[in-house]
What does this fold into?
Amino acid sequence: MTRAVQVLLALTATFALCVPTGTSVVVAANGPTREIVEAQDNPIELSEESIRAGRQVYGRFCRSCHGLRADGAGMTAPPGSTPANLVDDEWDHGSTDAEIFTVIKDGVAPKFDMDAWEGRVSDDDIWHVINFLRDLASE
Ligand code: HEC
It folds into this structure.
């Protein structure tokens, strides 16, 4: 038996053993949990540079609905929509940077008045926008 086949068999055996014992469930649960905990922290430090970058993204893509001061009073929000105030302490979809990141990236179902920005705003720019909003809220 070649070394590669032995390794393959060992892996298959491990996997087969894990499933009935439930070990794989723990392993699977550990993966995403660890990722989410790490993502709580904005990977981009709050700096003048980041705030400036975030302000640009905000002005281009978000201000029309969320308003000049990000208080939800945008001039051109779709009729019947109520854009969120992004500088108060109320977060309908979670208040950590990671949760806010997910809302911006995936949008708010089912109406998607709050669009999914994935593909149009890069991950880095989403973190910059969050830094910009955190800074604005602290003023
Ligand atoms: C077309 C209008 C529109 C645009 C443009 C828009 N939003 Fe929104 N946004 C909304 C609406 C409406 C909601 C409320 C959704 C809900 O809770 O049903 C919302 C909700 C949010 C929330 C969740 C707030 C909370 O309380 O949890 C965040 C964060 C957010 N928007 C950030 C952004 C950012 C950042 C951009 C720019 C990249 C952006 N939005 C662009 C309309 C918009």
